[in-house]
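[recover] target loaded
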């Protein structure tokens, strides 16, 4: 069975989803990857929320949590979404930081669901897209980077517009 970063073997989505896509097909890989990743994210968030720093410090170094909190101070929603999509920090640290911070579970689940659906679909269909467009590995990476850059720019402009309205 294909599960991503939080199952028995801790393998990143970028490895498991394209491999699962080659074996099961992109739709099944996207569904399984999204389900497995979101399950793990929820477990990590709730572990941090319920267990607190004492429990979490056994699994994650304090310097990683401090780094996360500095990122979060800038803009909670946009930063949280981007951190799930762009691999700045491992998902575990993002979940733990959000669980220990002031992020509500409902908001966290919404952001995590949208961003992980996006990454699951992109990764699962990346092989099909590369084949259809006859892209090399580096060209595919460039296309994905541009898509993520556009997403970041739009969310950044939205935040500025929202800030001006206050």
């Amino acid at each position: 069975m294909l599960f991503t970063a939080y199952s028995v073997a801790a393998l990143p989505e970028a490895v498991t989803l394209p491999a699962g896509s080659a074996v099961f097909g992109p739709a099944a890989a996207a569904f399984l990857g999204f389900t497995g990743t979101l399950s793990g994210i929820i477990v990590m968030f709730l572990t941090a929320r319920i267990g607190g720093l004492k429990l979490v410090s056994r699994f994650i170094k304090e310097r990683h949590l401090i780094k996360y909190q500095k990122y979060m101070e800038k803009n909670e929603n946009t930063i949280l979404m981007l951190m799930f999509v762009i691999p700045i920090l491992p998902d575990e640290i993002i979940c733990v930081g959000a669980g220990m911070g002031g992020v509500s579970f409902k908001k966290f689940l919404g952001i995590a669901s949208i961003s992980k659906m996006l990454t699951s679909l992109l990764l699962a269909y990346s092989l099909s897209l590369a084949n259809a467009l006859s892209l090399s590995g580096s060209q595919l990476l460039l296309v994905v980077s541009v898509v993520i850059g556009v997403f970041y720019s739009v969310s950044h402009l939205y935040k500025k517009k929202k800030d001006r309205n206050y």
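[recover] notes: The CA atoms of residues 138 and 144 lie 10 Å apart.
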